[in-house]
Specification:
The structure is a homodimer. The first copy, chain A, is of the alpha+beta class. The first copy, chain A, is built from 8 helices and 18 strands. In chain A, strand 16, helix 8 and strand 17 form a beta-alpha-beta unit. The longest helix of chain A has 20 residues. About 1% of the residues of chain A have low confidence. The interface between A and B is medium-sized, with 22 and 23 residues.
Amino acid sequence: MPEDSGKKLTMVTCSAPVNIAVIKYWGKRDEELILPINSSLSVTLHQDQLKTTTTVACSRSFQEDRIWLNGKEEDITQPRLQSCLREIRRLARKRRSDGEADVDAAGLSHKVHICSVNNFPTAAGLASSAAGYACLVYTLSRVMGVEGELSVVSRQGSGSACRSMYGGFVQWIMGQQGDGKDSLAQQVEPETHWPELRVLVLVHRADSVVPARMKEMIEAVHKRDFTAFAELTMKDSNQFHATCLDTYPPIFYLNDVSRRVINLVHRYNRHYRETKVAYTFDAGPNAVIYTLQQNVEEFVQVVKHFFPPETNGGQFLKGLPVAPTTLSEELKQAIGMEPMVKGICYIISTKAGPGPRVVEDPSEHLLGSDGLPKESA
Amino acid sequence: MPEDSGNKLTMVTCSAPVNIAVIKYWGKRDEELILPINSSLSVTLHQDQLKTTTTVACSRSFQEDRIWLNGKEEDITQPRLQSCLREIRRLARKRRSDGEVDVDTAGLSHKVHICSVNNFPTAAGLASSAAGYACLVYTLSRVMGVEGELSVVSRQGSGSACRSMYGGFVQWIMGEQGDGKDSLAQQVEPETHWPELRVLVLVVSAERKPVGSTSGMQTSVETSSLLKHRADSVVPARMKEMIEAVHKRDFTAFAELTMKDSNQFHATCLDTYPPIFYLNDVSRRVINLVHRYNRHYRETKVAYTFDAGPNAVIYTLQQNVEEFVQVVKHFFPPEINGGQFLKGLPVAPTTLSEELKQAIGMEPMVKGISYIISTKAGPGPRVMEDPSEHLLGSDGLPKESA
């Protein structure tokens, strides 16, 4: 419920998830509307480990729209932000003119103050724009009373943001229309569908040819076929990065640490003659590992062994608890790589999670009753 | 002339060049005959800087064929070596039976001793198999009196070896026939055609490369859809454009095609399952360096290409060599006691403007590059007349410190 502090200030706080594509989106057919050249599919990660939290305050007394991201005021005129604001307001006006009179008309002509924080590093390839825009759009929709299909709005902020509008396993259907109305996200399976699936995000020190595969991936998700899911994920990641390399000038997101992680996974799987672990890399060197619950303890230990953390580097393992275990000599030898100290800064252990939600607890608001960021928000 | 020491020993020594592809070969349609899925084109480098030297001795008194590579005796039964020996002997017999009686019949039924050395590191992506097999085949042909089309023979030792049979700019026509008789090399232009073209080999490390080319390209053919697209749809047009760029000495076109093809080759390796990485962080920095350098001048002055290893080969025109070598030295400062950093053709030192250094704006990476070989396009294989160059003694065994 929007909070009214008596200063005719409406305030809503929400949180939204990160998603990691297993069939990647790369390439637009329309820059302005952000329409992709291929469909894509992702896993929504759990907000207990990774999320964006956004507070939107709306008041007659605000002179202009303003936005603060991770403690710093940013340029509200940025086109993608403007697209989202404009679209939500248009949908809100449409709703009002459609005669849905019970809509709280707050926000329709009033300016908004937006404050957003991530609980993870921004711009390090951890899909922060997806969570960010999804949260922005979701929160604005709660403030302005807009219901229904929202992924087309968040898509215009950042393509992959549309997939963060749902939990579990989500596809972004590329669509055909020029106006982009059919380019939207759809849940393939909820987060409860595959409880054994686990996700490890290996955070790096702090710096086409697609979807015949979509069909195969959707089927793998439906059937909980980890081998198929994993192989498609790895192949798609490699193909994405191959495409980046085939660009002129070429784009490199993978570095020596990323390559070592890739080799580690292939050797680990080869040792067991089974695809137990999969990697995927987005536009940055952080690795995202997919595996089943029963493999988490050993694989975390493998990562720790071959990428030993800094001695005073702080907590190496964050998120869902993972019990320590010992590795057999046989396994270490089968992998046979030189350990690389400080190659990985820390690991976030997580799993699939739900879509955006309203944060009910008023102490979570990032803006004060004056509409400005709270100290240390 | 084959040397006859009186022990009825025939001995010939030749040298053959390395070649660096600008349109790359990666992927076979026939493993045994080494027939490629696409054509390729290379520049033959000058033997004054890089070469393989091979001595073949032939004598009635030899019990069996033997081979020494870089000082070590190797397994003569290795299938590729056998292919070359068998093919050369077949051609020699054919020549005899065609009635060319003035042929010195040495070698036809006699065993051979082969000794070969490179003046550069083996198996580190410096095209050593190309020079090696080209030299072997060429030297055997001199010993056994075989003339004519030899690239089909060296091709069967190592695909890219066929391109080392000629100097200058060479294409390997992929061919269509199942028997591989039309899959051969052809000179596009001689080494004298483009005298301003210069080559810098940036040796990143002399380590062995992680995945050998033969198995690597086989896995790529089996698993990469990008490779199929490349072979079917991209390379044929690129070959045409590249040949034209060479004919016209159009450096901009030559350079851009070279860089794009190198990147596509490595993209294909990444698109393989499991993926193959030949580029490392140093290679990527070199790539970035080249793009920033070109961008600063708003002109494609320098091109890079990488084979199946992290060593960079830089193509540029003579007028840019001094500055670019200095740029490399600045951003990849050599080890203080690392030995001679610049080898090959002399390059005068020069100073870089602050403006250029800032435009490039990269952190220097110490010891990223071991040394630079400065060279240019050069001729095909040749006989070495000087008897002191023989790597085998009159006993048919490697000379000490050969």
